[in-house]
Write a structure and sequence with these properties.
Blueprint: H1 5-27, H2 30-55, H3 64-81, E1 87-88, E2 91-92, H4 93-114, H5 120-138, H6 140-146, H7 158-181, E3 185-187, E4 190-194, H8 195-216, H9 221-249, H10 264-285
Antiparallel strand pairs: 1-2, 3-4
Length: 286
Amino acid sequence: MSFNFSVFKVRTLSAIVFGVLMMAGLFWNQWSFFSLFFIIQIGCLYEYQKLIALITPGYQNISFIHKWGLLLLGSLLFMAIGPVDIFINGISLQIIGSIALPLVAVVMMLADFLGKQFKFQNWALSFIGLIYISMSLSFFFPLKKIMSHTMMGDFGFAIPLVLIVAIWVNDTMAYLVGSVIGKTPLSAISPNKTWEGTIAGVILSVVLVTKVMGIYIPMPEKIIFIISLTAAIAGTFGDLLESKLKRLAQVKDSGSMMPGHGGFLDRFDSILLATPFVWLILQFLL
């Protein structure tokens, strides 16, 4: 994979704008944090439906209620698992999501049954999307809660930030190193990725994130190291998983949300797999 400066410039400028928006969502307040991942969840789930419809023609025939109801169902699942400390008129979003989730699911299934459009395969594919996207992104909230109340103040942003930065650095370093010296394809699923770029991306990501963020975040370097290593490795597999979906759908990008990067799934494929793995690892460590 040869280095293309014009492509790199577009990717870099787009990433800077996107990075500013991400940081604003992470740091501003609880609602911005919720809104950031809520929008990402909606965008990813919408693009997932489009890819599945291309891979499985029968999915193109899902009902109107099933298609748009799935976005509502994903949002309610996201709320039910995630934001315990956000309220509307004194009622937690988590409670609202938990109560509305089964009701909406039942209504959607009844609508499909009565309209004679219920197919187990289509519902199974939709359920996989909910787990793959909505549930995965909801883990950002328990990750945020881990360091929300420390002796040194509120550092709830710390673990989500380490996770996201580790993936960004890994992706960037893998692209740069792979473009310059990469010769050995990593997988037939994604022929532009190389072993040289992948290994360099993981190593550089872990070293840079651990050393730099260890200076500013009141967290043992050992924990930062484990988070960044888990994020980089799991994120690489997440990238390959989404590449497999696109290959099956025979498309280059899942969407066009971000110039030089593609759609929501193209940008967040690594995060979707890395987040639950980081959460799981921290359950044992903390």
